Amino acid sequence: MNNYRVQLSVQSPRAVIMIRPHNFYPNPDTAEDNAYQKQVPDEAMEVIAQRAYQEVTQAAETLRQHNIAVYLFDDEKGESPDSVFPNNWFSTHPGGHVALYPMYSNNRRRERRQDIIETLKQNFYVQDVTDYSGQELDGIFLEGTGAMVLDHIERVAYTAKSNRANEIALQRFSAHFNYEPAAFDTQDDQGQPVYHTNVMMSIGTHFAMVGTELITDPTRRQEIIQRLQATGREVIALSKDQIDQFAGNVLELASPEGHLLALSSTAFNALTDQQKETLERYVRFVVLDIPTIELAGGSVRCMLAGLHLTPRVRENSSKEQADC
């Protein structure tokens, strides 16, 4: 790896929040517009829940071994089958800003937890919390950094239009948080919009991975590619098959040793040798084995709510990585 590894970047969080589910199962309320979600027989639910619990536990431990601070919360209630994907209901931003988002599915709205927000306030400098969740009453939805892939450096919010990414909500977020909205149309193999942008796009400090084939308008596709290239990033095009294997649902993280790319074993195996070689110029791979979680139509990026906040200085800083 070149000298990029010693550089810090606002693009890459050094801490994440994860949710460990006790009653995980693919959410039937989200299956209609999530082409990546799988159906499983009812009799397998208990086994699936146990495996999901173990996968999140091991994933958190692996990230900690790579010096990523993990705040791990348990979801014991079983009322929110997608609670393992917290990046959809809140996001954090430099300067101490937090946003709460309006969720498309009724049973996903129960994922919002005040104890998580309080943990953020206790451990990081939080200046304000902007709550957009009231837009649910008007049928307006924007599911956080699932719906938007944020370029924190250039201040661009890349967004695939869908039921879960309303352009009115996008405009409001962009105005409040000083981002340039960059919306575009997509189509998956079933002929419907990609449900979340972060399934098909990931932006690192020096690269971007994009499922270019899924952007329907050729002119807009080229505009998105050129916009990313104009930042000096190397654009890595992902095929539809690679997107199906969650190769776009990855997240760059920052450790004291340099940049990491957290991704699933499914995604890692879908990348070509040339793509891996390109990425290794900028990051080290951290491969997480989460096949059960991926049954719900999301992967590693969906599991990690990145913390772009300044930590409070504490004497007991060794407790930064905590089970909550």
From TrEMBL:
GO function terms (MF aspect): transferase activity
Alphabetical keyword list: Transferase
Keyword RNA-binding: no
Signal sequence residues: none
Statement: the UniProt record of this protein carries the keyword Transferase: yes
Superkingdom field: Bacteria
Any Pfam family the entry gives: DDAH_eukar
NCBIfam families: citrull_CtlX (NF046062)
Record protein name field: Amidinotransferase
Organism field: Oceanospirillum sediminis
